[in-house]
Amino acid sequence: MRTTPLRLLAAAAVAAGLLPLTAGAAEAAPPAKPAGYAGSCPAAGTITQGWHSGHDGVDIANNRGTPIYSAGPGTVIVSGPASGYGQWIRIRHDDGTVTEYGHMYERLVSVNQRVSSGQLIARMGSEGQSTGPHLHFEAHSSTSSTRGMDPGPYLSARGVGLPCTPGGGTPGTNFTTWGTSVRVRADARLNAAVVRTLSGPTPVHVDCQKRGDLVEAEGYKNDAWSHIPALGGYVSNIYIDHPDAWLPGVRTC
């Protein structure tokens, strides 16, 4: 859409031979490292199974298609099919820990992609060994860990309690605006009320996007608008510093 993306893809070595853990493999893991990032809720839903000796993570059940978010900033080290999970994603966070997501029906991120805390990465499904739509979420002390630690204390140390509501905490930024006097409007319309005006480039967290009025600026045209919950309104994607007119990995409002 505009200029070069601010989020650069970070090269990451993928740990070879890492496979989804099977039931019965869990055991007490070393304490989580000190929180190195502000966490975000991975998914809304009901906790149907917690961490125990026969279960390496926590299961969060909800409807098929429920959004799944990255629990923190980091780099995607695995994204693809997997025995047992059907599909899975692993993210290595900036503090060295790893979170794992399984059973989704749609993955929205790829290996080596840099993600932010609270970024949409997948949609909930029931693929693999599953009796209904849910997210199987695990937390690991490192990429070499073979057994998951209890996700409850891990997330709690990062400001997230289970069950949780996405967006209820302080999600990290995933985009930055460009330009001055950028107007945040109550809806994706040029005649909607202005709720904020951004004086310069501003880091923002976009939770969804939708089609609205066509906006023209500096030779570009775009009818996509981003919703920024912290600012209480929408910004034309013309003013989001990303090369794509429709932002990748961001759901439709």
Structure, explained:
With 253 residues, the protein is mostly beta strands. The chain folds into two domains: 1-166, Glucose Permease (Domain IIA) (Distorted Sandwich), CATH 2.70.70; 175-239. Helix content is 2%, strand content 33%. It has one helix and 17 strands. The strands form five sheets. A seven-stranded antiparallel beta sheet has the order 1-2-10-6-5-4-8. A three-stranded antiparallel beta sheet has the order 3-9-7, with no helix packed on it. The longest helix is centred in the middle third of the chain and has 6 residues, at 151-156.
CATH level 4 superfamily of the largest domain: Glucose Permease (Domain IIA)
> Taking all residues together, what is the mean pLDDT?
82
| CATH-assigned fold name of the largest domain | Glucose Permease (Domain IIA)
Query: What order do the helices and strands follow?
Result: EEEEEEEEEEHEEEEEEE
Radius of gyration: 19 Å
Category from helices, strands and their pairing: mainly beta
Summarize the main sheet.
7 strands, antiparallel
Strands ordered across the widest β-sheet: 1-2-10-6-5-4-8
